[in-house]
Specification:
2 domains; 9 helices; Arc Repressor Mutant, subunit A; Rna Polymerase Sigma Factor, Chain: A
């Protein structure tokens, strides 16, 4: 039985036919989401949302023989929406400055798009990850963002070269990005 036949059956009231469409397409939709998002757990969630949206919007499909392409488009759009939402809730390193506490972040236009609790949670996560860094990285991050010291001032204060400060800040930021961007489990 073709996808088009199954779509017609679902539209005629035989809801069980959608189960077969899900069996046929779930793996491909999940793979597409994983390719776009790079995170298996998130891809599973977005794929499931895609299949649900596909079911709810099935009556809007004008050519049942294009079910796969239509569902793939829904998946791509869901991935784009998820990525946009993620960008809005990301916390910038500027959140480490003393005057950037969760209350002050609310006045920052860069943070106005996301829910308040998400921002506060992200700031807490960022600060916790900074605290988990090796001491030499914590030190340069805190001094650079809290004291607004230049690389030269930091180098002089810590008795190392400006290049070492640059390397430590680069490494610390990289570690923070890596830790904060890991897939939710």
């Amino acid at each position: 039985m073709s996808d088009a036949d199954l779509v017609r059956q679902v539209l005629a009231g035989r809801i069980e036919a959608y189960e077969e469409l899900v069996r046929r397409w779930a793996g491909r939709i999940t793979a597409l989401c994983h390719a776009k998002l790079g995170c298996a757990a998130t891809a599973d969630d977005v794929a499931q949302e895609t299949l649900l949206r596909g079911y709810r919007a099935l009556a809007s499909l004008s050519k049942p023989e294009n079910f796969g392409a239509w569902l793939s488009t829904i998946a791509r759009n869901n991935c784009i929406n998820w990525l946009r939402a993620k960008v809005r809730t990301q916390v910038h390193f500027s959140a480490l400055t003393p005057d950037q506490n969760p209350e002050n972040l609310l006045a920052d236009p860069a943070y106005l798009d996301g829910p308040e609790l998400d921002r506060e949670d992200e700031v807490r996560k960022l600060k916790a990850e900074v605290a988990a860094l090796p001491e030499e990285y914590q030190e340069v991050i805190r001094l650079y963002y809290h004291e607004n010291l230049t690389y030269r001032d930091l180098a002089q204060l810590l008795g190392v070269s400006a290049a070492t400060i640059n390397a430590r800040l680069t490494k610390a930021r990289g570690l923070l990005r890596e830790r904060l961007s890991k897939c939710p489990r």
